[in-house]
Protein backbone atom coordinates (compact mmCIF):
# COMPACT_ATOMS: atom_id res chain seq x y z
CA UNK A 1 0.00 0.00 0.00
CA UNK A 2 1.58 3.26 -1.10
CA UNK A 3 -0.98 5.53 0.52
CA UNK A 4 -0.45 7.91 3.40
CA UNK A 5 -1.38 8.20 7.08
CA UNK A 6 -3.05 11.22 8.68
CA UNK A 7 -2.88 11.88 12.43
CA UNK A 8 -5.35 14.37 13.88
CA UNK A 9 -4.59 16.05 17.20
CA UNK A 10 -0.93 15.93 16.18
CA UNK A 11 -0.17 18.86 18.49
CA UNK A 12 -1.76 16.96 21.38
CA UNK A 13 -0.39 14.54 23.93
CA UNK A 14 -1.30 11.23 22.27
CA UNK A 15 -1.24 12.38 18.65
CA UNK A 16 2.02 14.24 19.10
CA UNK A 17 3.68 11.23 20.71
CA UNK A 18 2.46 9.04 17.87
CA UNK A 19 3.93 11.43 15.27
CA UNK A 20 7.23 11.44 17.16
CA UNK A 21 7.30 7.62 17.22
CA UNK A 22 6.76 7.40 13.48
CA UNK A 23 9.36 10.04 12.72
CA UNK A 24 11.84 8.20 14.94
CA UNK A 25 11.49 5.17 12.68
CA UNK A 26 10.20 2.90 15.43
CA UNK A 27 8.26 0.88 12.85
CA UNK A 28 10.02 -0.51 9.76
CA UNK A 29 6.68 -0.57 7.92
CA UNK A 30 5.79 3.09 8.44
CA UNK A 31 7.90 5.60 6.53
CA UNK A 32 8.43 9.23 7.52
CA UNK A 33 7.18 10.46 4.14
CA UNK A 34 3.84 8.71 4.71
CA UNK A 35 3.00 10.74 7.82
CA UNK A 36 0.74 13.78 7.64
CA UNK A 37 -0.23 15.73 10.76
CA UNK A 38 -3.31 17.90 11.32
CA UNK A 39 -3.03 20.94 13.59
CA UNK A 40 -5.13 24.05 14.23
CA UNK A 41 -2.83 27.02 14.76
CA UNK A 42 0.12 28.60 12.93
CA UNK A 43 2.25 28.14 16.04
CA UNK A 44 1.47 24.43 16.16
CA UNK A 45 2.17 24.09 12.45
CA UNK A 46 5.57 25.76 12.84
CA UNK A 47 6.50 23.50 15.76
CA UNK A 48 5.70 20.31 13.84
CA UNK A 49 7.10 21.52 10.52
CA UNK A 50 10.53 21.74 12.13
CA UNK A 51 10.39 17.96 12.53
CA UNK A 52 10.07 17.46 8.80
CA UNK A 53 6.54 16.06 8.91
CA UNK A 54 3.85 17.04 6.38
CA UNK A 55 1.64 19.46 8.31
CA UNK A 56 -1.95 20.27 7.35
CA UNK A 57 -3.95 23.08 8.91
CA UNK A 58 -7.56 22.02 8.58
CA UNK A 59 -10.94 22.85 10.02
CA UNK A 60 -12.05 19.26 10.58
CA UNK A 61 -15.71 20.32 10.61
CA UNK A 62 -15.43 21.55 6.99
CA UNK A 63 -16.22 18.38 5.06
CA UNK A 64 -15.43 19.81 1.61
CA UNK A 65 -12.00 20.98 2.76
CA UNK A 66 -11.28 17.67 4.50
CA UNK A 67 -12.29 15.62 1.45
CA UNK A 68 -10.18 17.78 -0.86
CA UNK A 69 -7.15 17.55 1.42
CA UNK A 70 -7.30 13.78 1.95
CA UNK A 71 -7.66 13.18 -1.78
CA UNK A 72 -4.83 15.57 -2.65
CA UNK A 73 -2.47 13.92 -0.17
CA UNK A 74 -3.59 10.36 -0.92
CA UNK A 75 -4.63 9.60 2.66
CA UNK A 76 -6.11 6.17 3.26
CA UNK A 77 -5.47 5.75 7.02
CA UNK A 78 -6.62 8.28 9.62
CA UNK A 79 -5.69 8.05 13.30
CA UNK A 80 -8.13 10.38 15.05
CA UNK A 81 -6.89 11.61 18.43
CA UNK A 82 -8.19 15.20 18.23
CA UNK A 83 -11.37 14.55 20.22
CA UNK A 84 -13.19 11.53 21.59
CA UNK A 85 -16.33 13.57 22.31
CA UNK A 86 -16.91 15.89 19.35
CA UNK A 87 -18.38 13.77 16.57
CA UNK A 88 -18.41 16.77 14.21
CA UNK A 89 -14.63 16.41 13.94
CA UNK A 90 -14.79 12.71 13.09
CA UNK A 91 -17.57 12.43 10.51
CA UNK A 92 -15.99 14.62 7.78
CA UNK A 93 -12.85 12.49 8.04
CA UNK A 94 -14.87 9.32 7.60
CA UNK A 95 -16.69 10.87 4.63
CA UNK A 96 -13.34 11.82 3.09
CA UNK A 97 -12.02 8.28 3.50
CA UNK A 98 -15.17 6.98 1.85
CA UNK A 99 -14.52 9.28 -1.10
CA UNK A 100 -10.87 8.21 -1.22
CA UNK A 101 -11.98 4.59 -1.40
CA UNK A 102 -14.24 5.41 -4.35
CA UNK A 103 -11.49 7.26 -6.22
CA UNK A 104 -8.56 4.92 -5.51
CA UNK A 105 -10.37 1.59 -5.39
CA UNK A 106 -8.33 0.80 -2.27
CA UNK A 107 -9.58 0.11 1.25
CA UNK A 108 -9.48 2.97 3.73
CA UNK A 109 -9.23 2.91 7.53
CA UNK A 110 -10.37 5.11 10.40
CA UNK A 111 -8.86 4.58 13.86
CA UNK A 112 -10.95 6.48 16.40
CA UNK A 113 -9.83 7.26 19.94
CA UNK A 114 -12.56 6.82 22.55
CA UNK A 115 -12.34 6.97 26.35
CA UNK A 116 -12.62 4.60 29.28
CA UNK A 117 -15.39 6.64 30.90
CA UNK A 118 -17.82 5.29 28.30
CA UNK A 119 -17.62 1.98 30.19
CA UNK A 120 -18.14 3.13 33.77
CA UNK A 121 -21.25 2.20 35.73
CA UNK A 122 -21.36 5.84 36.87
CA UNK A 123 -22.08 6.82 33.25
CA UNK A 124 -24.82 4.25 32.76
CA UNK A 125 -22.78 1.27 31.57
CA UNK A 126 -24.19 -2.05 32.83
CA UNK A 127 -22.33 -3.96 35.55
CA UNK A 128 -20.35 -7.11 34.88
CA UNK A 129 -17.20 -7.87 32.88
CA UNK A 130 -16.99 -6.93 29.19
CA UNK A 131 -14.35 -8.14 26.74
CA UNK A 132 -13.28 -5.97 23.83
CA UNK A 133 -14.01 -9.04 21.74
CA UNK A 134 -17.55 -9.19 23.17
CA UNK A 135 -20.80 -7.35 22.36
CA UNK A 136 -19.36 -3.88 23.06
CA UNK A 137 -21.02 -2.14 20.13
CA UNK A 138 -24.40 -3.72 20.83
CA UNK A 139 -24.20 -2.54 24.43
CA UNK A 140 -22.97 0.95 23.51
CA UNK A 141 -25.83 1.25 21.04
CA UNK A 142 -28.33 0.17 23.70
CA UNK A 143 -27.06 2.85 26.11
CA UNK A 144 -25.97 5.42 23.56
CA UNK A 145 -28.16 8.27 24.76
CA UNK A 146 -27.02 8.11 28.37
CA UNK A 147 -23.44 9.34 27.74
CA UNK A 148 -22.01 11.43 24.86
CA UNK A 149 -18.84 9.36 24.45
CA UNK A 150 -20.87 6.25 23.66
CA UNK A 151 -22.96 8.17 21.17
CA UNK A 152 -19.82 9.28 19.36
CA UNK A 153 -18.45 5.72 19.20
CA UNK A 154 -21.70 4.36 17.77
CA UNK A 155 -22.08 7.20 15.27
CA UNK A 156 -18.51 6.78 14.02
CA UNK A 157 -18.89 3.03 13.52
CA UNK A 158 -22.23 3.34 11.74
CA UNK A 159 -21.05 6.23 9.55
CA UNK A 160 -17.90 4.32 8.59
CA UNK A 161 -19.93 1.27 7.64
CA UNK A 162 -22.22 3.40 5.46
CA UNK A 163 -19.20 4.89 3.67
CA UNK A 164 -17.40 1.57 3.20
CA UNK A 165 -14.60 2.59 5.57
CA UNK A 166 -12.98 0.05 7.91
CA UNK A 167 -13.11 1.42 11.46
CA UNK A 168 -11.39 0.62 14.73
CA UNK A 169 -12.10 2.04 18.20
CA UNK A 170 -9.08 2.36 20.52
CA UNK A 171 -10.01 2.87 24.17
CA UNK A 172 -7.12 4.21 26.26
CA UNK A 173 -7.26 3.78 30.01
CA UNK A 174 -5.61 6.31 32.36
CA UNK A 175 -2.65 7.45 30.25
CA UNK A 176 0.49 8.62 32.02
CA UNK A 177 4.12 9.44 31.28
CA UNK A 178 5.77 12.39 29.60
CA UNK A 179 4.87 12.52 25.94
CA UNK A 180 7.35 12.87 23.10
CA UNK A 181 5.41 15.27 20.86
CA UNK A 182 6.56 18.71 19.72
CA UNK A 183 3.72 20.70 21.28
CA UNK A 184 2.04 19.09 24.31
CA UNK A 185 3.95 16.49 26.32
CA UNK A 186 1.68 16.44 29.35
CA UNK A 187 -1.10 13.95 29.99
CA UNK A 188 -4.43 15.01 31.46
CA UNK A 189 -5.80 12.97 34.36
CA UNK A 190 -2.83 12.86 36.75
CA UNK A 191 -1.48 16.36 35.95
CA UNK A 192 -4.86 17.98 36.63
CA UNK A 193 -4.93 16.22 39.99
CA UNK A 194 -1.32 17.14 40.80
CA UNK A 195 -1.90 20.78 39.83
CA UNK A 196 -4.96 20.85 42.07
CA UNK A 197 -2.98 19.39 44.98
CA UNK A 198 -0.20 21.95 44.59
CA UNK A 199 -2.67 24.81 44.29
CA UNK A 200 -4.53 23.73 47.43
CA UNK A 201 -1.38 22.70 49.32
CA UNK A 202 -2.89 19.29 50.08
CA UNK A 203 -3.70 15.93 48.54
CA UNK A 204 -7.25 14.62 48.77
CA UNK A 205 -8.87 11.33 47.82
CA UNK A 206 -12.37 9.90 47.75
CA UNK A 207 -13.56 7.56 50.54
CA UNK A 208 -13.85 4.67 48.06
CA UNK A 209 -10.60 3.09 46.89
CA UNK A 210 -11.54 2.62 43.24
CA UNK A 211 -9.49 0.50 40.86
CA UNK A 212 -8.43 2.01 37.54
CA UNK A 213 -6.54 0.72 34.53
CA UNK A 214 -3.41 2.47 33.37
CA UNK A 215 -1.23 2.62 30.28
CA UNK A 216 2.02 4.47 29.64
CA UNK A 217 1.88 6.75 26.61
CA UNK A 218 4.66 4.78 24.91
CA UNK A 219 2.67 1.56 25.27
CA UNK A 220 -0.43 3.30 23.92
CA UNK A 221 1.35 4.59 20.81
CA UNK A 222 2.71 1.07 20.33
CA UNK A 223 -0.89 -0.17 20.15
CA UNK A 224 -1.82 2.30 17.39
CA UNK A 225 1.35 1.25 15.58
CA UNK A 226 0.40 -2.43 15.82
CA UNK A 227 -2.99 -1.77 14.24
CA UNK A 228 -1.49 0.28 11.40
CA UNK A 229 1.19 -2.33 10.75
CA UNK A 230 -1.46 -5.07 10.48
CA UNK A 231 -3.43 -2.87 8.06
CA UNK A 232 -0.35 -2.21 5.92
CA UNK A 233 0.32 -5.94 5.82
CA UNK A 234 -3.29 -6.46 4.71
CA UNK A 235 -4.08 -8.71 7.65
CA UNK A 236 -7.72 -9.19 8.55
CA UNK A 237 -8.50 -7.65 11.94
CA UNK A 238 -11.69 -7.34 13.98
CA UNK A 239 -13.18 -4.05 12.80
CA UNK A 240 -16.41 -2.09 12.68
CA UNK A 241 -18.87 -3.33 15.29
CA UNK A 242 -16.25 -5.88 16.42
CA UNK A 243 -13.26 -3.56 16.20
CA UNK A 244 -12.78 -2.41 19.79
CA UNK A 245 -9.28 -2.40 21.29
CA UNK A 246 -8.98 -1.74 25.04
CA UNK A 247 -5.57 -0.28 25.97
CA UNK A 248 -5.43 -1.74 29.47
CA UNK A 249 -1.83 -2.43 30.46
CA UNK A 250 -2.25 -2.85 34.23
CA UNK A 251 -4.49 -2.05 37.20
CA UNK A 252 -3.91 0.54 39.90
CA UNK A 253 -5.83 1.42 43.06
CA UNK A 254 -6.32 5.18 43.41
CA UNK A 255 -5.16 5.12 47.04
CA UNK A 256 -1.96 3.38 45.90
CA UNK A 257 -1.33 6.47 43.76
CA UNK A 258 -2.52 9.27 46.03
CA UNK A 259 -0.92 8.22 49.31
CA UNK A 260 2.64 8.08 47.89
CA UNK A 261 1.83 11.18 45.82
CA UNK A 262 1.15 13.06 49.06
CA UNK A 263 4.50 11.92 50.44
CA UNK A 264 6.35 12.93 47.27
CA UNK A 265 4.71 16.36 47.08
CA UNK A 266 5.34 16.96 50.79
CA UNK A 267 9.01 16.02 50.36
CA UNK A 268 9.24 18.73 47.70
CA UNK A 269 7.55 21.26 49.97
CA UNK A 270 4.55 21.54 47.65
CA UNK A 271 1.88 20.42 50.14
CA UNK A 272 1.59 20.83 53.90
CA UNK A 273 0.66 17.24 54.81
CA UNK A 274 2.39 13.98 53.89
CA UNK A 275 -0.86 12.00 53.96
CA UNK A 276 -3.85 12.21 51.65
CA UNK A 277 -7.02 13.60 53.20
CA UNK A 278 -10.61 12.65 52.29
CA UNK A 279 -12.64 14.98 50.07
CA UNK A 280 -15.52 16.47 52.11
CA UNK A 281 -17.79 16.43 49.04
CA UNK A 282 -17.76 16.27 45.26
CA UNK A 283 -18.36 20.01 44.90
CA UNK A 284 -15.15 20.81 46.75
CA UNK A 285 -13.25 18.35 44.57
CA UNK A 286 -14.69 19.90 41.42
CA UNK A 287 -13.70 23.41 42.49
CA UNK A 288 -10.18 22.30 43.39
CA UNK A 289 -9.65 20.42 40.14
CA UNK A 290 -11.41 22.89 37.86
CA UNK A 291 -13.67 20.20 36.41
CA UNK A 292 -17.49 20.23 36.08
CA UNK A 293 -19.10 18.43 39.03
CA UNK A 294 -20.71 15.62 36.95
CA UNK A 295 -17.28 14.50 35.68
CA UNK A 296 -15.18 14.56 38.84
CA UNK A 297 -16.08 11.11 40.15
CA UNK A 298 -16.23 9.74 36.60
CA UNK A 299 -12.59 10.69 35.98
CA UNK A 300 -11.10 10.09 39.45
CA UNK A 301 -13.38 7.73 41.33
CA UNK A 302 -14.71 5.16 38.86
CA UNK A 303 -13.69 1.76 37.63
CA UNK A 304 -14.45 -0.26 34.53
CA UNK A 305 -14.78 -4.03 34.54
CA UNK A 306 -13.15 -4.58 31.16
CA UNK A 307 -11.07 -7.41 29.71
CA UNK A 308 -8.62 -7.10 26.83
CA UNK A 309 -8.53 -9.84 24.20
CA UNK A 310 -8.44 -8.13 20.79
CA UNK A 311 -5.55 -5.93 21.87
CA UNK A 312 -3.29 -8.74 23.01
CA UNK A 313 -4.12 -10.84 19.94
CA UNK A 314 -2.37 -8.14 17.91
CA UNK A 315 0.87 -9.01 19.69
CA UNK A 316 0.77 -5.91 21.90
CA UNK A 317 3.22 -6.24 24.82
CA UNK A 318 3.14 -3.31 27.26
CA UNK A 319 6.49 -2.46 28.80
CA UNK A 320 5.02 -0.73 31.85
CA UNK A 321 3.26 -2.45 34.74
CA UNK A 322 1.88 -1.33 38.12
CA UNK A 323 5.20 -1.68 39.92
CA UNK A 324 7.12 0.33 37.33
CA UNK A 325 4.46 3.05 37.29
CA UNK A 326 4.54 3.48 41.08
CA UNK A 327 8.34 3.53 41.07
CA UNK A 328 8.23 6.44 38.61
CA UNK A 329 5.36 8.37 40.18
CA UNK A 330 7.72 11.23 40.99
CA UNK A 331 8.24 11.65 37.24
CA UNK A 332 4.64 12.82 36.98
CA UNK A 333 5.32 15.61 39.46
CA UNK A 334 8.48 16.62 37.59
CA UNK A 335 6.55 16.75 34.32
CA UNK A 336 3.92 19.07 35.83
CA UNK A 337 6.58 21.36 37.29
CA UNK A 338 8.47 21.43 34.01
CA UNK A 339 5.55 21.75 31.62
CA UNK A 340 2.87 23.49 33.67
CA UNK A 341 -0.65 22.84 32.38
CA UNK A 342 -1.57 20.38 29.67
CA UNK A 343 -2.48 21.99 26.36
CA UNK A 344 -5.63 19.90 26.18
CA UNK A 345 -9.18 20.56 25.04
CA UNK A 346 -10.60 17.97 27.46
CA UNK A 347 -11.78 20.40 30.11
CA UNK A 348 -13.42 22.66 27.52
CA UNK A 349 -15.10 19.63 25.92
CA UNK A 350 -16.47 18.47 29.26
CA UNK A 351 -17.81 21.92 30.05
CA UNK A 352 -19.59 22.11 26.70
CA UNK A 353 -21.21 18.70 27.22
CA UNK A 354 -22.78 19.57 30.59
UniProtKB/TrEMBL annotation:
Domain NAD-dependent epimerase/dehydratase per the UniProt entry, residue ranges: 5-231
InterPro entries referenced in this protein's UniProt entry, alphabetically: Epimerase_deHydtase, NAD(P)-bd_dom_sf, NAD(P)-dependent_oxidoreduct
Gene Ontology cellular-component annotations: cytoplasm
Pfam families for this protein: Epimerase
GO molecular function annotations of the record: aldehyde dehydrogenase (NAD+) activity
Xref: PANTHER family: NAD(P)-BINDING DOMAIN-CONTAINING PROTEIN-RELATED, PROTEIN YEEZ
Name of the protein: NAD-dependent epimerase/dehydratase domain-containing protein
UniProt source species: Coleophoma crateriformis
Amino acid sequence: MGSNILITGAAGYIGGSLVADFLAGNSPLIKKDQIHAVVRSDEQAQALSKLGVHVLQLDLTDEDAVVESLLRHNISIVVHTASSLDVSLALPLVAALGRQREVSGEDTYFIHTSGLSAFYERTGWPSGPMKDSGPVFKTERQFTDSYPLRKTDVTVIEHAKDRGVTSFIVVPSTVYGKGSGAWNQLSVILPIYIKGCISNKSVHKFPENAKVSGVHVSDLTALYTKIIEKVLQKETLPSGTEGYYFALAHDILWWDILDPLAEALHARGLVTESKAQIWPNVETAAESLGIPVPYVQILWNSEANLVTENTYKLGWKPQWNTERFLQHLDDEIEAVQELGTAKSSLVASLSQST
